[in-house]
Amino acid sequence: MLPEIQKLLVIQDRDKRILALHNDLKRIPMEETMARQKLDGDKAALAAATADLQTTEVAIKNLELDIQTRQDSIAKLKVQQYQTKKNAEFQAMTHEIERYGKEVTGLEDRELELMEKAEAQRAVVASAKQAHAATSAIIEEDLAKLVERKVNCEAAIAEQEAERATHTTGIDEFLLSQYDRIFKHKGDSAVAPLTNGICGGCHMKVTASTLNKAKGEKEIAQCEQCGRMLYVAG
Ligand SMILES: [Zn+2]
Question: pTM for the complete prediction?
Fold first, then answer.
């Protein structure tokens, strides 16, 4: 194998690792968003349960006001009853008091129903809160792991780049820039094995002259299809 190819393969090995690390790094923000989205369902469930409970609590307060109004009327009528001397008026007031009394009973029954409903809704709110808290804890853990992964990725990239730099010294600048250009353009490799006359990069058969050039190992042969630098592997 040409010594230049050997050196480039070492560099390419680093570049592949750096590329994989960069790809991993790129996925982190998306994974953070996905982790946060897991909470959305729990948040919505908690908000809906809280809203339901509030509606019931408002309805109970309104009923209590209605009951109080009628009880006030009853109290007032009772005072008026003591003051009146007219029997017909007294009777009419008794009817009024009874009517309000029945209304109060009806409203109190309704209030009792709503209080039971509120109790059930309070249990739903409590379990929704619990679910939200449990999910939050898991997400916090996931997010912390993602932060750690980001730090590790960045450190590994720096390490690989430093190592790469030690391997690029002494390599022909033009050859290195050619290699860089191909690697960037192809996105995966710039140096590929040639196996049974097939380029390992694009999987096309190379011409006989390219095959001979690669076998000769005097100068770098390039695949005429994809431009990758070739070395004979078999
Ligand atoms: Zn090729």
Answer: 0.72
